[in-house]
Q: What sequence folds into this?
């Protein structure tokens, strides 16, 4: 008998303010047609003045807890993936812990940019399986628009704000090997950090900085590395693309999603796409897309889910789990 983690509930939150492509075109040399053709994005959400990443994370977490039927005080671990923390320290997860009123346990942040949620899921899953904790909130939350250079057409059109969360719980398990959270494959190549980064930081410039990206090179590496991570989790489990019920990828760019799905042989009707409605929300995009799939009735209990992500750092990964 071994401990296994199971997803008990999902949640999401998007700020009220919506910024459309047409509105962006009044600020930048761009157009709705140009953005949609290259990215598939129609609009993005923008956090209100005074709305913090911890507020967004807490709202998403509350919805996930409600869906799971689990009280905040029964949570003993919070892992928050974010690139846009409330403060340099303490970890934004500690603010979420205080706002939710969770039970005694640990709360910390993970920074792997757009791959952050999968890195966080793998971390929480490992800690639960070791028996160190019993129930965890894994959250991806961002106020990414606050690190954008609104004069840079190559990045300003791509990102938005939002948060998503899952509640996972460990139990002793003697059943099927492909139940619950099955496996992960996460990797980083720091030699490619210059492809996607922020040009500021505490120990370098003393400023927040702005997102900088070499789009064409990122696209090339994204499709290759993501596909290799997906193949790694399939090879480990003996499963194939045909076994997957839903592909819930990081919502970076529809061209990347289409390229990866085609390369690994997943049909379009199995791909969950939300990038058109909220753009790239970095660490929040996978749990937001998963929550959308669940609440829309597409993804149901027992479905096999494949997720992938690629982010600055250069980080990427894939996770396989059953709802």
A:
């Amino acid at each position: 008998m071994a401990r296994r983690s199971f997803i008990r509930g999902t949640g999401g939150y998007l700020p009220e303010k919506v910024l459309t492509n047409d509105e962006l075109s009044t600020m930048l040399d761009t157009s709705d047609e140009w953005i949609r053709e290259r990215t598939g994005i129609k609009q993005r959400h923008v956090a209100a003045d005074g709305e913090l990443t911890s507020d967004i994370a807490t709202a998403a977490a509350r919805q996930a807890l409600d869906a799971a039927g689990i009280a905040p005080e029964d949570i003993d671990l919070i892992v928050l993936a974010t690139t846009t923390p409330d403060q340099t320290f303490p970890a934004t997860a500690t603010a979420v812990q205080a706002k939710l009123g969770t039970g005694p346990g640990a709360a910390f942040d993970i920074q792997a940019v757009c791959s952050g949620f999968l890195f966080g899921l793998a971390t929480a899953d490992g800690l639960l399986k070791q028996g160190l904790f019993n129930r965890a909130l894994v959250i991806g939350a961002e106020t990414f628009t606050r690190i954008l250079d609104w004069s840079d057409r190559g990045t300003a059109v791509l990102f938005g704000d939002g948060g998503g969360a899952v509640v996972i719980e460990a139990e002793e398990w003697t059943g099927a090997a492909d139940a619950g959270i099955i496996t992960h494959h996460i990797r980083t190549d720091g030699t490619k950090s210059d492809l996607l980064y922020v040009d500021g930081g505490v120990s370098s410039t003393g400023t927040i900085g702005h997102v900088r990206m070499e789009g064409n090179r990122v696209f090339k590496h994204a499709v290759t590395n993501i596909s290799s991570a997906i193949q790694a989790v399939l090879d480990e489990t003996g499963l194939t693309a045909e076994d997957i019920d839903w592909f819930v990828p990081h919502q970076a760019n529809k061209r990347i999603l289409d390229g990866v799905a085609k390369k690994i042989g997943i049909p379009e009707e199995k791909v969950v796409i939300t990038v058109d409605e909220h753009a790239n929300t970095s660490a929040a995009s996978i749990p937001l897309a998963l929550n959308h799939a669940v609440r829309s009735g597409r993804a149901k209990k027992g479905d096999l889910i494949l997720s992938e992500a690629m982010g600055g750092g250069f980080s990427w990964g894939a996770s396989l789990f059953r709802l």
Remarks:
- The radius of gyration is 18 Å.
- The chain has ten helices and 13 strands.
